[in-house]
Amino acid sequence: MPTATARTLDHPVRAEIRLEAVLHALSDPVRLQVVRFLAGLADGEEAACSALDLAVTKSTSTHHYRVLREAGLIRQVYRGTAKMSVVRREDLDALFPGLLDTVLTADAAQRRRLS
Amino acid sequence: MPTATARTLDHPVRAEIRLEAVLHALSDPVRLQVVRFLAGLADGEEAACSALDLAVTKSTSTHHYRVLREAGLIRQVYRGTAKMSVVRREDLDALFPGLLDTVLTADAAQRRRLS
After folding, report:
1. Does B70 touch chain A (CB under 8 A)?
2. Which residue range or ranges hold the HTH arsR-type domain (chains A, B) (predicted)?
């Protein structure tokens, strides 16, 4: 049976979040898709990784979620056997005002342009 | 003697610039330093790579400028033996309104926070 420690995922605290890591995390189309999806949920609403159908393998998906979590973009917690994710909007907006929204707007504009 | 072709550097046209590549280019502290420097110049002013003293080797510096150029963040042209660089602000602002300024503001805030 996993211990409480094994079931807790590492996250940077707000002061440890770095712009370079956030930009790197957002520089991949699959990770951008995850953030777009999570940012579109109601405030504070969590989603399981399985809620979004990514065109990648399970292990690649897990990798992308981990990059997002370790960069400070999302928070992940276990609820029973499900790993639930939520965007750290409050932390991001406090550190980098407007950045998340500007990137999501740019992403939406690009998808319109390329479709 | 280099031909005209050899002296011309490849750049994506505006429509080829991709958000993911721009974010990746900006996700490195040295490249962020270059963009910060170039964005601080007067409108249209070019700078030689040697104008900025980066804490990296010449070949690493050349690599970083190339990543920025291929992502569409900067334009580079030869003037005699010097390679001159300028931020593609007009292209970036047209494609991703506010993105460059938001990133530079976030970068400035982070540097204040960490200093």
Report:
1. no
2. 11-107
